[in-house]
Amino acid sequence: MTAPATSRPVPAARARRLPGWATSMLVVLVGLVVLSITATLTGQLQLTSAGTAQAAVQLLLPILFAGLGGLWAERAGVINLGLEGMMILGTWGAAWAGYQWGPWAALAAGAVFGALGGLLHAVATVTFGVNHIVSGVAITLLGAGVTKYLSTLLFLPVSANPRQSPPLRGFDSFSITPLTDVLDALVRANLVFVTDVAGILQGLLTGLTPTVLLGALAVPVTYLLLWRTAFGLRLRSCGENPVAAESLGVSVYMYKYIAVIVSGGLAGLGGAALVLNPGQLGYLEGQTGGRGYIGLAAMIFGNWRPGGLLAGSALFGYVDALQLRAGGDAVHALLYAGTILAVLVAVLWFAQRYWLAAVWALVAGLVVYLVYFFVDTIPSQFAAFAPQIVTLLVLAVASQRLRPPAADGLEYRRGEGD
Amino acid sequence: MSRLQTTLLPPLLAVLFAALLCSIALLISGDNPGAALAVMVTQLGAGTTAVDVINTGAVYYIAGLAVAVGFKMKLFNIGVEGQFRIAACVAAIVGGLLPLPPVLHVIVILLTGMLVGMLWALVPALLRAYRGVSEVISTIMLNAVATGVIAWLISPAAFGFVQGNNISTPPIAPTGHFPGIDLGPSGTIFGMVFVAALLGVGYWFLLGRTRFGFELTASGESPTAATAGGVEARRMVLIAMLMSGAVAGLIGLPEVLGREHAYTLVAPQGYGFTGIAIALLGRNHPAGIAVGALLWAFLDKSALALDNIGVPREIVLIMQGVIVLSVVVAYEIVRRYAMAAEQRRVAAELRAQQQPVAEGAAT
Amino acid sequence: MTDTAEPDAPYAVELAGITKRFPGVVANRDISLRVRQGEVHALCGENGAGKSTLMKILYGQLRPDEGTIAVNGEPVVFRSPADAIRVGIGMVHQHFMLADNLTIAENVLLGAERRLGIGAKAKAEIARLAATVGLDDDPDTLVEHLGVADRQRCEIIKVLYRGARIVILDEPTAVLVPQEVEDLFETIRGMQAEGYTFLFISHKLDEVRAIADSITVIRRGTYVGTADPREVTTRKLAEMMVGSELPSPQTRESTVTDREVLRIEGLQLAGEGAPLLDGIDLVVHAGEVLGIAGVEGNGQTELVETIMGIRRATAGRIVLGHGDRARDITKATTLERREAGIGYIPEDRSRHALLASQPLWANRVLGHQTRPPVARRRLIGLINRAAARKDTQRIVEEFDVRTPGVDVPAAALSGGNQQKLVIGRELSGDPVLLIAAHPTRGVDVGAQAGIWDELRAARHRGLAVLLISADLDELIGLSDTIKVMLRGRLVADADPATVTPEQLGAAMTGADGPEEGAA
Asked: Which residues cross the membrane (chain B) (predicted)?
């Protein structure tokens, strides 16, 4: 017999909380207001233009899928650093199938190829107990190697370039026309705030493809499956306390396998989304460019929750889009938005009496503002990694508030519980 | 199973397994695995291949050591990639801008590389030690940041030096070149190869013979037991991470000092991840890492020869990937098997002695 | 189900001739146990007596080598806990099997979703059961917000939700404070009235007598007898439990000197809410064993870790040594404290004392990495591997560590031999103070006696020992002075020459302390 856990009760913060959906709406609203103010005051109209929003959607999709993949795996207690590799497999599979049988086949093949990578990760980590991070890195190396080999073998004859697939046929895009027309009118009406919101909405509803809809669907479906079904409860219990789950008759290995395979499939879908991006249809070696890792970062940013993950991917996709469309000046304007946000956060924390945190937020806001004031533009090279900087900041500031699954990344072996 | 067997068997099995898989892949694609293998082996005698293998092996060896220092205490410095690239870039800039006398010039470049690698590792080290942020995520983020910073550093707006189609850092004067051993038509062995070997000896001594090495291993094995034994966890995280970064800072320098004499826009990438694979293959042991590094370099160089006989060179990448994945699985299986066997052996040896005691106490 | 036990009703549980062997040890030897329906049946025995093994057999986690199980008169064979659950047996483990980040309802429903789904119907049932066991929280509360007692209630709900009528409680009071124990007993009595049967595992005799309808005692894996709590005295029960081979508290001579080795003044350690340590004052002299008695979770672990520098005291002073050589170590690091001569036997051997996959000689180095013989004298910062091996061999011989050599990994040794190695290491390098937390926990009987001998010998040589133990007989048998710890405070003193385990137990739970024996 060993010592019982000396866990102590944490005084429950039972303050009345807003329901989840209301908080999300509030966050979105605040974000819009801040952007609108910034766009108005700095004159950077691209901040809230329809084009930026539309580009952001395309850019956030791969990140979102990869992040969802990370979410599935980590909720079952398996860290998936192989997302990048599974995504690479997905891009190749999607291009190969898409070239022959069209975009729907591309989606399916992307998912299947990614899931194969997931299966490999599951075998290594769950069955053989290999360290999750080690296995993830190895799978990424392997994924890159396999796709290069296959590309040389299969794409070179048809595209005359071992690093590239022949151009693919993508989905036809569509817009929700009556609505977008109304929004277009609102944009033209040039009203403060209304124009900004309408612009963003217009972008979100234009140039839609089945891939976008799939991404939009994947978030609520993940939420419902993982949080509202017995299946999801069992899967999450494997990530929280697998020994307890086992003691209650849950087949931990099976759920971990399912989770990691789904995780790979989602990462593969992310790869397919890249390949089917209307702006750049086709496979290109290295096109994932670390988006698998960014997906992981978006998941952490979102505190291992689907809604938060969506917000994280949106943020990253948005900054990316802004940088691509409007360059350093627009990103520079974002510093202004950052200042406003920091002040808002500081006020919120003052109200909640987190004095120290509030002061830090103010200081951070001041620093950001000074940078804004003294620097004219952000070099494009820096703007490109804004998402990573944001992630690092979030981790540094909020790491104590983040709540990863309790048994995330720990080795679990059947029958070894106490 | 003897200790030697448990150490050597997994990597051998992994290499064989990888070779088998690749042979199958080649057969399917209509190539001849036997011919491929023959070419891979015979190419070693041709041209500069052997020297190239050693030179690249030295680079990989340093990379493997950098990763292994962290692995020893279960720190996953995925950021060796970013640390080595930014260190090589800044060291090349410093070397290109400062006019210095011969030996000092090289030393300054080496030290700059180590220092920058260390600084780049400082951020994740601090985040991990004081904020509990996983070094895995923070170093991955910093790898991307490093890419951006390097792109800016060697842009003409900053320190870039345009030469034809290529952009690089300002070229380093001959005083800052690390002399190698010229073997004529066989090529030139980098002087840095010897630095790498020295590093290996230092690593071996540090890990196996010093208090620091013991504390590092203890922290990796059980942070709680190490703490109770007077090891300060936070300090160990900082030191291990910074050491890893410092060694990482040297990875790019054999090429900068021995061949390129500048850091170019197209300078090779991925050594950090190769280092991870090699550290895994060599099980963080200095000799194992050396074997792993040479094997990796050999496979890399085979790619060219394979191309010549019409075998897709990328088969090598698959082979390398399979080796890493199967070697970690093999180590894990052997580890479990060996531990269970050890427990059985101890129990069996003791049962004979204990039996009379237990029976006596019960009556 | 009947409300009360009828005379001719079959036994709720009947174990007959249960034997279970593990490599090198017989955990249960021909044990029989009969539990009537609707009763609270206590299973008593010392740590390591085989109670948990027996209950794991009844719950289907282990399969007996010999013997039969019958439930409600029907013979059964359990292959897994699922089989046991099916016939209405449930078990509340001593270590709670709860996921902090899931809600009460989720923890209860996990694995039993088929019964009522996971929706409103299930939550209503959970709310009903929560009322039965006295849990006030909303089923949607995260378990991490619950205190220990509420977590236990949550565990009981888990068992009930699965339809259990026979509930095994494994050491349920070990983590509870007295008021919570009372509440638990209330709950048990209430459920007993509803027809539930309980198997209550404990080694705390006063509690057992307070709650049980009948008591079965086992000792070293064998059945000793069954007693009626209304007829048996606590003393008689204690004798049944420990036999007559216990160290006798009276037979010893004092080696206590007046040389202070450790002085603690006003030690304070803040916690979330109530302080973990509150105004601790104590002095340990050379040649003295100071025992700390207390229910687990009352601050003993924190006290030890604060003295070792693993936790930082919020206020107060820790002084090591006496007179001119006194040294304030309140702010020293763990390593400095060890170097100053403190040896430390942590309560959780595998997590805090050993490097499992490292060889024995490397484990010898841990905590001594700066001191000879394992550190080189002249070349500072270097480890002398040959000397470490040699000194490990010395420990192996002197402390009778049963091992084939010093190069085997620590994990390959049995618990008792690991502990002997740890004790040998901590007594190396001439310590002045030894902090021993549960030094014989999880150790077989033979090794236990050996460890006690070593501690006595060290005390005889003038070592000061701070002993923490949940085993009151060990505490009384070894200590020169006993202090009782309750909720982070030292609340009473006792003289081990006169105090009984029952008196100590009363003081530990906050009842009247045995002040009459105070020195």
From this structure: 54-71, 83-100, 106-127, 139-163, 183-206, 237-257, 315-334
